[in-house]
Amino acid sequence: MSTVATPPVPTTRRRRRGTKLQRRQTRLAWLLLLPSLAVVALVAVYPLGKTFFQSFTDQEFLGLTPTKWVGLENYRVLWHDTLFRHSVWVTIKFTLITVSIEFVLGLIIALTVNSHFKGRGVMRAVMLVPWAIPTVVAAQMWKWMLDDVFGVVNDAGVRLHILSHSQAWISDPSTALASVCAVDIWKTTPFVALLLLAGLQVIPGDLYEAADVDGANALQQFWKITLPLLGPAIVVTLVFRTLDALRVFDVFYVFFGNRPDTQSMAIYAQSTIVGDGHVGYGAAVSITIFLIIAIFVVIYMTLNKARTE
Amino acid sequence: MSAAAEAARPVTRPASRSRRLRKSRFGRFLFRTPFYLLVAVIIVYCLFPFYWAIRSSFMPEADLFVTPLQYFPSQPTLNNYRDVLSASFFTDALLNSTIVAASVTLLSLAIGSTAAFVLGRFRFHGRSFVMYLMLSMTMFPQIAILGALYTMINAAGLYDKLGALIFSYLIFTLPFTIWVLTSFMRTLPAELEEAAYVDGATPLQVFWKVLLPLIAPGLVTTGLLAFISAWNEYLYALSFIQSPSNYTVPLAITSFVSKTGSAFAVPWGQVMAATVIVTLPLILAVLILQKRIIAGLTAGAVKG
Amino acid sequence: MRRVKRHRTTLALAGLTGAVTLVVWLTIAAAGSAGTAGSSSRSAVAAPPVPNAAAIKAKYGGQSITFVGDSVGGGHVRDLALASRFSKDTGIKVKVVPHPTASDASYSQLVRVFSSHSSSIDVAMIDVVWPGALAPFLVDLKPKLGTQAKLHAAGIVQNDTVDGRLVAMPWFGDFGILYYRTDLLAKYGYSAPPTTWDQLFAMAKKIQDGEQKTNPNFYGFVFQGNAYEGLTCDALEWLASSGAGSFIDHGQVTINNPKAVSVLDSFRAQIGKTTPRGVTTYQEGEAHTAFVSGDAAFMRNWPYAYSIAADPSTSKIVGKFNVTVLPHGAGGTSVGTVGGWQLAVSKYSKHQDAAIEFVRYMTSPAVEKFDAITNTNVPTIPAVAKDPAVVKVNPYLKPEIAGVARVTRPANSLKAHYNEGSQDIYQGINQILNGAPASSVLPSIESKLKALLK
User: Fold this and answer.
1) pTM listed for this prediction
2) Cis preceding linkage at A8, omega within 30
């Protein structure tokens, strides 16, 4: 009847009940969705729509000159904007590094916490600590910890003979991106781990028991039971982590400010809108960021469709 | 009878395989040490910066950045905690953040779970569209919608009020909550619903009594993550709140300035003390809550 | 059964932890309210009375104004004290709102309110580089406060005058100075602080080489090198004191000249040699932390750092440092970049006259003296700066230092484009400090600034 993607389990009995129930269910569906749609309309549609229209004007923050329609002019300039292109590249590198490492680390932590051992409850609380500290505070803390004069990372590294001398992690262009990735990984792995842990917890234990009986070893169980059933949780986690990574702001701002060689896309948007005062151009930047993020979403959804087929 | 026996058996034991391995003598030797080593590494990795924050919070300002670094305070002091707790805007901020975060969490869970129920268990035209519409809310950088949001909040008379934040934070908690809970809903087998419908339950009863308890880990997780996101948000709080009595925690922490009043001299000892004060209750709350998760699961519904 | 027992233990533990936390909390808070909660000890000096209060009350008593003032902390406390005195004497109610601690957040807040023509702000505290951009939104104060403005430093008044309109009254001044370690200068045989940049680099190198034998984290010189507004301030001092202009002079972009190239390259050569490699991420906070922890011989900073360096609870170098004017280049003169804050009245205020009276009070000599003594703010009235009581609390106001030539950033030339122009400047200079030769970066800064001036 409907051509929409269906949930993994067919509901044959419902279909047999006829179209009247279907129609009633559809009505109920939209009714129950009303609150969420209302929030979306109120909170998102107006601001996003306004941004969209602003991107075709030359609006300024100070509002001293009247706003004119400029059509695609902002986008044309943006196409040649090397600073923006660089920020896109920096952000994509950052996203690929952090999401992949966070995923692996998060999975390891989730599997560890999910297994039975004494103190697993404490572990679960401990792993939440990085996520619980406000990002602006955590970023500043790490900036001090990575400092080349009084940073504890350099101090401990030199004492333990891991480092030959203090490194200027943040200033040095070759380690700058690595330092900001390290902080983000520390901060956000708990988020990934928590989500994957929740996903692990709904996997019924009898599947493992049955596999034990069939003589499968731990690795086989992981590949054949855990990963596939964790699939939906993995997809959601990766999608949201990627979205957040592509929009990263706080950590870059605290570490680098407006340093041109290490700007993320959101920093560039902010410096354009608030710093330079070009609201129209900044809106075009934001729309472009949205489109770049949309590309990633499409990639994920395509991979997900392939996975479920 | 078999159902009762099955219910008595704990439902989630994914560790049964590690248990089996551990039972063997060889397994016990081989797997215990690296495992606990892994646990130790994870704990150090997560906690060391927090230990550093705690250490800094007990040190006088002058000693904080002295080299060689003190890994343990040589002259511990309670001054930082005293200064932080006597700053009225900080204690106000704790209350404000709690109100905002709790409201946002409850709203997200309420709206999100009903939406997830619909998006996960019903089939109808436009379901994917709604999902992607929700997602699109989180695909814009925060700064992009700040201007328009500011206009809306001003027009609604919510400027400098906590309501502005509760309203704005839904932008990022709702899509996330809906997507996660929807994916949880989708993993549930249909037989449970069918059984309930056959017994004459309405969809809302099915939602409330059958499905919601089963996705309890999802609810607790998204609730926790939504709470922490709302608690730690900075940009909107900075833009929409003006009076110190309405500050939220991130605003308050970044507002600490030294006694001389200069905005350049941030008293890091106090900032660290504030961070510890703000983080510890959260951890304690989780320590208590997570027992509930296990309790909820072991008392879970009939399977199979 | 086991489950219940487990829960019971947890709940008991939680309850105990909660109780202990509560007790500790209350003890500390109680002890805190008895102790110094910030600047209560400083308000031993009372806020001065309002001159002409009766007349003001007759005309404007009963009106309410909103004042966006200093950020939370000692500054806010001082604002509250002054505002309540003003309200008491004149009957004009003043609501004090602290501005965000971060400067660009503060700027955005003001622009958002002004560009929406809102009357929610009457008096605002604005940075010294904002009058050019915000002038169209501000009231001309010359008719009513022109006479009082004559008491203030001429350079700052000129900075606050845009197209002939006095759009803001000077409130606090600020200027760059050199901090140095007196004990280390003596130890390595120097009788006086450096007067030229090259002397500074040489002294920093010798002291650093000596000190690093025992303290590997010691460096000769720290300043503000991060890619932010503070670097524009520092770099302006380097250029202006070496005869290399002040970025934009008389409406012409002068940043790309041979003297500027040589000065910037000489600073670039110091990064990582006499300065920490990380100095290109330092703002005021990191610089003063390095200095007061004893890890630097020289520091360029604003006067605020003096009280931090002199306070035993925050500094390890009490009694071992002093201040002087910044060095200059060969053939140049010492300068200090002008910082500080002004007070302005919004054009959209519904109580402009009451607001102007408040500004008159806040920028009067009596209140400036009060500010200087309670919060070590640098007064903008030269007569107040010479007052012995003020100099006693602010030793950097000694005539030989306070009289240094001031140089201002090109805010009035760039007007609404100042933020963008400053960003072009500091991003370029940060690149130079991080290793790019000045001759390759200055031309692009020059062309960007030229584009903005058009």
Assistant:
1) 0.85
2) no
